[in-house]
Amino acid sequence: MTDAIRIHQFGGPEVLGLESVTVADPGPGEVRLHHSHIGLNYIDVYFRTGVYQPAAMPFTPGFEAAGEVIAVGEGVSDVDVGDRVAYAARPPGAYAEERVISADSLVKLPAVIGNEQAAGMMLKGMTAHMLLKRVNAVQPGDAVLVHAAAGGVGLILCQWARHLGATVIGTVGSEAKAELARAHGCHHPVLYRDEDIGERVRQITGGEGVAVAYDSVGADTLRQSLGCLRRRGMLVSFGQSSGKPPAIEVGELAAGGSLFMTRPTMFDYVGEREPMRAAAEALFDVVAKGVVSIEIGRRFGLAQAAEAHRALEARQTTGSTVLTV
């Protein structure tokens, strides 16, 4: 038996309960992992509340973790017992001491990447790679807008975009978060509670607007993001921490200057083995070189998952938050 967080009904953080569960032996192509660290992400909240639907109830949430291989199934050759590995993969099930998962979902961790660091960056970092390299290839001289710039994805986006030569504008909720974002590559933090985002963006860009707006907030910011774009700019909506984004009429894209809009999900870009491993290697490379640092803002025990969710939803976290096993 092993401990895992189980959800029996959708709801608030109180539905996250620690239970003893049985973990099967790995089948062909599978491995059994013992987690040491688990990443907390807003997608976990979406599954907990029923915005996204699991395959069945009850279920264990979580898509990101790091740990050690403790058993391998038939046909597994890429990893072996004792290997340190990490993943950001479907289906959910990371909030657990141990789990069985497809070996193709795993990447071996290089010596320079620690388990806690890996658990705090796999899903967030590969999301950043997708946004900067594949959804919209950021070019030197581009101005970009990053909402929630002091969050887990935000801090990685700011650093990586600056490395690519972009001018980075980031929205934050406090002076402390502004300082954190600035220390992680954001040229121009904007305090969204005190400043008009669109007006500040136009000031910073000489009236032109940004090439791309990365919006993980949703309801509170999507229309503002649209108004911050330059001609032929792109709005990338990849989250909804403040609620469901409003509908955008197609004609608004034309009126704004032949704008583009997309709603990507990471697993459509790294759902297969080779694209996933290429994205992970690119992430490991920028972290190993010091281009991107992974800020672990808070740590909770696995049994404190509900407390961690409350902190995340109350915007009391910065950088990455991890659960320890």
Automatic annotation (TrEMBL):
Keywords: NADP, Oxidoreductase. Residues 11-323 form the Enoyl reductase (ER) domain. SUPFAM superfamilies: GroES-like, NAD(P)-binding Rossmann-fold domains. PROSITE patterns: QOR_ZETA_CRYSTAL. Pfam families: ADH_N (PF08240), ADH_zinc_N (PF00107). NCBIfam families: PRK10754.1 (NF008024). This is Quinone oxidoreductase.
